[in-house]
Amino acid sequence: MFLEQFRLDGKAALVTGGSRGLGLEAALALKEAGAKVAVMARRASFFEEARKHLGEDALYLEGDVRDEARLEELCDQVERELGPLTVLVNAAGISWGAPSLEMPVEKVREVLEVNLVGAFLASRAAAKRMKERGYGKIIHIASVAGLKGEYPEVLDAVGYSASKGGLVALTRDLAVKWGRWGIRVNALAPGFFPTRMTEKVLPKAEPLLRATLPLGRAGRPGELGGAVLFLASPASDYITGVVLPVDGGATAL
């Protein structure tokens, strides 16, 4: 009875930023639970790694989350080829590191456009279709950086932190506005995980993580997918507006 609630057999799921990193892990978790998965990335060349893991039965979609018209086209394509869009995971994201007093404002704008505005545009495109059926799951990949400040020795990327804080607020607001249509909107707030985005930051942050985190380490590959699956599946049907940290206890401090 209970394990069956975590199945997604035949459900169509779209993962933005799903070609690598935490987005790819999310796509793998959804596929393992039986979902028909589409992954979206800015360039077709990004799909090489994803194809090795997801195979040829996944749908690979090239597009930019800042392009509203393209998002509408891709949601239509998902529904034509995979069926009604039931799950959206917003994992597309970028960062730019620099001391806050020297941060180029154009980089702050770019990060906000991709991480926050892009997530809203993708969510809105998906929600239009979910509303028609009275059901849907939207999951934002936020960050602990959106829940608390970070020492510059750990993370010096004010635009990234601001974008993730905005994503936390967006999650809660859309959950309230869209709950009447059966659309659940939740977020995950990962701590440090080994990805291309953190490959330059993580080595210098690890000593501090070991010394300060309750679990004493960064996240490992495979430790986010289960949380994605929970929020995507019927097991979480009575949950909306929640931001779940997956952070080794960072936000408990």
TrEMBL record:
A GO molecular-function descriptor: oxidoreductase activity, acting on the CH-OH group of donors, NAD or NADP as acceptor
SMART domains: PKS_KR (SM00822)
SUPFAM superfamilies linked: NAD(P)-binding Rossmann-fold domains (SSF51735)
Chain coiled-coil ranges: none
Matching Gene3D superfamilies: NAD(P)-binding Rossmann-like Domain
Ketoreductase domain residues: 11-183
PROSITE patterns documented for this protein: ADH_SHORT
Family stated for the protein in its record: Belongs to the short-chain dehydrogenases/reductases (SDR) family.
Name of the protein in its database record: Gluconate 5-dehydrogenase
Source species of the chain: Thermus brockianus
